[in-house]
Amino acid sequence: AQKITQTQPGMFVQEKEAVTLDCTYDTSDPSYGLFWYKQPSSGEMIFLIYQGSYDQQNATEGRYSLNFQKARKSANLVISASQLGDSAMYFCAMRRSGGGADGLTFGKGTHLIIQP
Amino acid sequence: DAGITQSPRYKITETGRQVTLMCHQTWSHSYMFWYRQDLGHGLRLIYYSAAADITDKGEVPDGYVVSRSKTENFPLTLESATRSQTSVYFCASSDLANQPQHFGDGTRLSIL
To answer: Measured by CB atoms within 10 angstroms of the end CB, which terminus of chain B is less buried, N or C?
Structure first.
């Protein structure tokens, strides 16, 4: 079975600072994908970034980067130069790459609040 | 516009009633999913589908029924609603296993 752990229920960060959201995972599958989603107060789920288990380089998407440490089974999200609009819930999730239709396993999320 | 649409956005019903939540996507994605979101649990997978007429149970399938007669539609039915099924329900779709799932805006369901 897969498991995602997000140990930070809430975080307060000053605007323009970098922020790291922690995510550790547990799986016995050799091939998997790791995802981060943002859920603002309006409720929609917004895809941010993806990392494959065999990818050699850490994924980056604009101000988002994923610090992937496979041996430690961690996939932390780094947001550079935080903005007020980054305030939201952030979910780490994983999915097996083999087997096709498997859904995502989500962590319980981190509530990030950016302060001016 | 292409996308994934859920309806209704809000629904209030009574225990014991049947209710169906609709999900429609215009990307022709093979895979579709239903999740529920509850405080303290994050999102949990209810059912998923790899293609038309192929469905399978997720983590929390009890009390729910799905069908997928067409690729673009994936309705979720609560056959006899219970208060414990009060939740926010999200539909999602994706093309390949390593592609991100795209979510609808959710249906907030309250069962009295």
So the answer is: N
